[in-house]
Structures are given as C-alpha cells and as structure tokens.
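User: Sequence in, structure out. Go.
Assistant: Echoing your sequence, followed by the structure tokens.
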Amino acid sequence: MRLGTGVAVPGLRSAPDTANAIATINQLAPGRVFLGLGTGNTAMRTLGRKPMRLKPFAEYIQLVRALLNGEDAAYAEAGESHHIRFQNASRGVYNIGHEIPIHIGGFGPKAQALAGQLGDGLITGLPRGGTVEQALSNVRRGAAAAGRNLDEFYTSALVNLVLLEPSESLSSEGVVARCGSAIMANIHYLVDQFEDNGKLPPDSVMPIWDDYMAFHESRDESRRHQKLHASHYTYLDADEAKFVTPEIIKAFCIAGSPDEIIEQLQVLEVAGLDGISFMPPDDERHAMYEAFAKNVIERMRGPRGRQT
C-alpha cells in the first residue's frame, strides 16, 4: 500500500513545511510514499481566496523537489531569499534517501502540461480535466518542452462512481444520495470558472444552469463562497438535490452494473489511465468502498492478484 496526499495545497503551507511533512511520512513507510500537489480550488475558495497561479505553483514544486533531493535551495519569503536544506539527516526523523514522486493536480491544459514538465505523475479529474487522451497530450507537450522522458509517469483521475443495484435507475433516490455530493462538487467548480472568466459549463449542465445560478446568487453574498463549497464531497445539500438529474449523473459519473463499470474502467486503462480515486459521501463511504471492492476490484484482478 502506498501513502500520499491527493492533493496538498501550497497556499495553505510553505514549501519547507510540505517537504518536511512528506519526508517524515517517508520515514514511516520508506519508498512507499508519493506527494500530490494542487493549486487548491476548494481549499482556497472557502477562505475567500483564489487558487494559486501556475507560475508560483511551479516555483513551489521546484523548491519542494530540490529539498527532497537533498539540495540547497533558495527560499524567498517576506522580500528576502535565503538558502535552505534538510538538516540532521542522521537523527532518523525523516527520510529523503528513498525517492518521493511528485504528482501534480491539473484539470486545465496548462496545469497538465506543468505535470509533464515538472512532475512524476498527473492527478486529473473526469470529465472536468477532459478525456484521458487530451490530458496526456498536454502532459507530453509539457515534457517535450522540458526535454523530459515520461517512461515512469503515473496518471490518475478523480472520478465519480455509482454502482447500481439490479432494481435501480439513475433517478432512484438511493443513487442520487450516493453520488450527489460528488456531482455537485463538479457543478461548484463550474460556478467558480464562470465567475472567474465567464466560461459557460458544458452542454450537459445547461438545462439546470440558470436555475442553479439563481439559487447560488440568492445566498448571502458575504457568505456565498462558503456555502458553495460547504458540502464538498461529504454530503448532498438538501437544497441542491433537485439539481442532480439523471442526465447530470450520466454526464459526470461512471455508473452502471459491475460489468458496465469494469468495461468503462478498462476503456480508460487502454487510453492511458493508471489509477482512479473516488469520494463517496460520508454516510455512504464504507458501504460504497466495500461494494466496489467486492463487485469491481476483485473481478478485475489478474491471475496473480494483480489489478489489471
């Protein structure tokens, strides 16, 4: 089992802090650790701030990488720059001797290219980050610009999954409960994009868009940024349940019977996806993980128990 962040947010902690934390975990699980970093859409917006821009994000990644490589690195803060590095390596409280791959979160083309330029992996989202093919094309573009080889590159995606019972359809109350919080996290992201740059959502969202925006804008303006993301991947806001339509579920979820889900995952694997993660609501989490492990993962394992 590998341990890592998916993802840590640079705007909430300094680069030395992040490097120190992940190196400490590497001491506990040497060689089994990775570091996921992202610009922090939800984490930053709940503080009333925007995600980190790509230029400072790239500088942050490079500083963390240098520290984990055991190098001297220039650390700038409060208008001053000083050389820093890990110290007291012999005391056994951290481990930078075993490599810690850095996986970079990216939904847009530029962030995905940055993963190819600086990272050991990409963490994207489906469908928010485009198709797997589109994401990897952007990764390769960034790698080519940096003269990098991507033989060991790892690509994973946050996906929305809902395993249907034989009697269920996409409009079933239980289905909406199991995937609603994940669906709405995608809608919240689209609202942020619209408010930032006027970008309209995909066609699949347009049937609910005007009604949702009217609902969103009816909230107290001074608390709106908190309300928008309060339920993020944890619960379905009762006032938002009406927006989780069968059409929206179909557009934003891998949904179906175990065989149908396996077929869709295998298509993604052929396209170049190495791993997935999904986040059920809090009160459904353990049951959904158990059902997915039993009905999907076990059936996808090869003859030696290796997941295919």
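User: And one key feature?
Assistant: The chain has a mean pLDDT of 94.
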